[in-house]
Amino acid sequence: MNEGTLNLLVGLAMGLNLLALGSSRLPALIRTVAAQGVVLGVMPLLIEHETLDWRVAAVAVATIAGKGVVIPWLLRRAMRAANIEREIEPFVGYVPSLLLGAGGTIAAVGLARALPLLPAHSGSLLVPGAMASVLTGFLLLIGRVKAISQVCGYLILENGIYLFGLLLIHSTPLLVESGILLDVTVGVFVIGIIVDRIQRAFDSLDTRKLTTLRE
Amino acid sequence: MISLCLILVPLAGALLAAAWREDRTRPLWLPIFGVIHAGLAAALFFNPPAVAAESWFGFDPLARAVLPAVSLLFLVCSAYAVPYLRLRAERPNRVFVALLLTVLGLLSAGHQARHLGLLWVATEAVTLAAVPLLHFNGTARAFEATWKYLLVGGTGIALSLLGSFCLGYASLHGGGRGDLTFAALTAQGAGLSRPWVLTAWVLLLVGYGTKMGLAPMHTWKPDAYGQAPGIVGALLAGGVTTVAFTAILRVRSVVGAAGEGPVADRTLLLLGLFSMGVAALFLLGTRDFKRMLAYSSVEHMGILGLGTALGGPGVAAALFHVWSNGLTKGVLFLSAGNLHRAAGEPTMDAARGMARLTPRSAAIFVAGMFAITALPPFAPFFSELQVVRAGLAAGHGLAVAAFLGCLLLAFLGLTRVVFGIVDGRPRPARVHHARRFRETAAVIAPPLVLLGLSLALGLFTPAILRESWLAAVRQLFPTP
């Protein structure tokens, strides 16, 4: 029914993945992640169902509020406290990570063809979108040295899982959904606190300085 | 009903501890709730309740075979926590005490979860609740360790959520309702979509394997165990890892029902042996005795993985090993905590001649080391012997040979570090520091009790325990 619109949004989210991989300035990266959060939050409303289920609406509102507003606000605050604006020397440069991300997106579309899908989902971009986002998240986690960029990578990874979860939105019970949402939110809060403590303990958010513990 | 109390009572205790005003008396709630929890667990263990097949929660045979071990370990650790927190009176303990009880409640939830989604929620919640426990010391190194724990653990646990969704999709694609209870998934069995089941298995194994600390997803473990207080290390190594292990066992049973058991077993066998090999090599290199315990934990997680790959008898041996490893690791972590306090730093360079400075803790540490390296008649010897027997019976001679080789290397690595810190003449600069640490009965008794339990479990394994492990195997591998 709304499949065209839904696919458009998934495509948008995949485009935002590439934008995240290409942005060197942290505010831009955080903005990208926030925009992706809002795009993801709208999706449950578009998945076809007879009447607008209040549970689906609740998931949508909570997602937009959490991923689109609260978490980006936390990250921006940490960024200002640490007084850093940009990622200067990433492990993986911007052009290579963009190329890897683009290649990964193409591979995700190919790989999704290899997995059997229900007829209802065969035209949907949700599965490739999910895989591409998970991959992007990994690239950011591995390729960036600033803790805030790594958190953004983690968020994009989680967004990918959320996209996949949309396939099951009607069969997972509300209790489990809200538990998952709660855990994810608390998780980011905890990460935010630790980022703050690392900033105070090391006077920097450069994770290359976190190398005292090794063999 | 009692099974729900196992979860709710510690959580209520956490609230109480958080609301309690006095730092000095707050730690006493730990043993109080530890005793209640152990009592409830024992009651359920001896009178197992009937669990409805479709229920999301329940003290089923698998929970019965593992959860009492965690409860017992927590009880002893909570007794140790009281003198420990008294020694650390300079640090506020509100968060620490409340979160220890939260972890206990969530561990009980994770062990009893019969729904893939709830299992994930409980495991993720335990992961997060353990974060402030890891950086209790508040040093820069502790925050570094916490950061690595969060990123590696968080990514792993995120992958296991993706795997859970894949398993749900396997059910939908196979014509099911996408019901994520293990009973429903097992019942659908061969009806599950094979490619999705395999995708789910890989993701869930990597995800929960990270939490368990199987190599190569173990990288958070040495840092976290090295920086966390000994009691937290004991609970992570004996409690949190077992939740991830039972998760893998439950998922393995679904994968087996879907007809992909052999694939699952092969991956578990390889991952288990790889973990043992990696751990043995790092044990030969490390100079830090708390990191040494982390690598030893990786090794024993490998043993659990290997046991699981060997079919029914192997799983029974692995469940036995959960008990023997959990209790014996408790001995090592608690006595290592004493040594750490006395020596100031947990490295071979700083800590020497501990047999003279803290003779009792050093003796327990050495005994614990021999126990964990499978000296008879301690329990790990018997559980590892069972793994060997199961391996030979299943025709995995080569795997058994590799297993024994890794055990030998690990033994060399462990003795090298342990005798390095126990033997010799203490550094003069450290003697003064060590004098401030007194080996009172309160810090000696808990590891000694665990050592006794490990010995007793090896000498006369109670028949009811053996029976509970076999019942769990019957639950996981129902014979058609």
Q: Outline of this structure?
A:
The complex is a heterodimer of chains A (215) and B (480). Chain A has 215 residues and is mostly helical. Helices cover 73% and strands 0% of the residues of chain A.
Describe the structure.
The complex is a heterodimer of chains A (about 220) and B (about 475). Chain A is mostly helical and about 220 residues long. Chain A has one domain (about 5-210). Chain A has helices at about 5-20, 25-45, 55-80, 95-115, 125-145, 145-165, 175-200. Chain B is an all-alpha fold and about 475 residues long. Chain B has one domain (about 1-475). In chain B, helix 3 (about 60-85) runs antiparallel to helix 4 (about 95-110). The longest helix of chain B has about 35 residues, at about 140-175. The interface between A and B is large, with 44 and 48 residues.
How much helical structure, as a percent, in the residues of chain B?
over 70%
The arrangement of helices and strands of chain B along the chain is HHHHHHHHHHHHHHHHHHHHH
Strand composition percent of chain A: under 5%
Number of strands of chain A: 0
* Integer count of domains of chain B: 1
How many domain regions of chain A?
1
Global shape of chain B: globular
Q: Assign an overall shape of chain A.
A: globular
Q: Give the assembly state of these chains.
A: heterodimer
> What is the CA-CA span between the terminal residues of chain B?
31 Å
Largest interface: A-B, 44 and 48 residues
Uncertain stretches of chain A: none
What topology does this entry show?
The complex is a heterodimer of chains A (215) and B (480).
Chain A (H helix, E strand, L loop, with lengths): L2 H20 L3 H21 L7 H29 L11 H21 L11 H18 L3 H19 L8 H29 L13
Chain B lengths: L1 H18 L9 H18 L14 H27 L6 H19 L3 H14 L1 H4 L5 H34 L8 H7 L5 H19 L7 H8 L2 H28 L3 H23 L5 H20 L2 H33 L10 H4 L1 H14 L6 H15 L3 H26 L5 H8 L5 H19 L3 H14 L4
